[in-house]
Amino acid sequence: MSRVGKYPVSVPSGVTLTLAEGAIVAKGKLGELRLPLTDAVDVTVDGNSVAVAPRGSDRRARTMWGTTRALINSMVTGVSKGFEKSMEITGTGYRAAVQGKELILNLGYSHEIRYAIPEGIKITTERPTAIKVEGADKQRVGQVAAEIRGYRGPEPYKGKGIRYTDETILRKEGKKK
């Protein structure tokens, strides 16, 4: 039995949830998100709470019960508060800047990397070595942050590269004389 799925999702003021054509739509101050629903669960919207229940007792229905509840909770949080990922750039001469709809990264290569910022995502650089990715969709924020980090991940000897702010890098000792 799902421990996550049995709790209802509370909907804060300013967020509206509607069921439409096999999908649930959340609208809030930060945008609109849509989640297609599977046929394994039933979703009911009662004023300021949403309840999810499995349609059967098979394995798929029970797994989709908790998953659907977690996705709806992320949608509600996303359209009301939003999600953010902070990253730091470490290395001599490594820096980032936002110009228009592009993030420009200088990461020690012979060329600069231009990353087109997708729709619904906001990227800011408070300092040249700090990047903040913000948006309403938790999955897209994480995906964009992972793509940016993928250009130059942190290396274990000097720690150079792009890392998440809350990430710890296990450092290696290096050569001994």
Automatic annotation (TrEMBL):
HAMAP family for this protein: Ribosomal_uL6_B
GO cellular component: ribosome
Keywords associated with the record: Ribonucleoprotein, Ribosomal protein, RNA-binding, rRNA-binding
Top-rank lineage group of the source organism: Bacteria
Self-association and partners: Part of the 50S ribosomal subunit.
Protein name per its UniProtKB record: Large ribosomal subunit protein uL6
Organism: Roseomonas elaeocarpi
Record domain Large ribosomal subunit protein uL6 alpha-beta: where: 11-82, 91-164
Free-text function comment from the UniProt entry: This protein binds to the 23S rRNA, and is important in its secondary structure. It is located near the subunit interface in the base of the L7/L12 stalk, and near the tRNA binding site of the peptidyltransferase center.
Pfam families, A to Z: Ribosomal_L6
Keyword field contains Transcription: no
Matches recorded under PANTHER family: 60S/50S RIBOSOMAL PROTEIN L6/L9 (PTHR11655), LARGE RIBOSOMAL SUBUNIT PROTEIN UL6M (PTHR11655:SF14)
Family listed: Belongs to the universal ribosomal protein uL6 family.
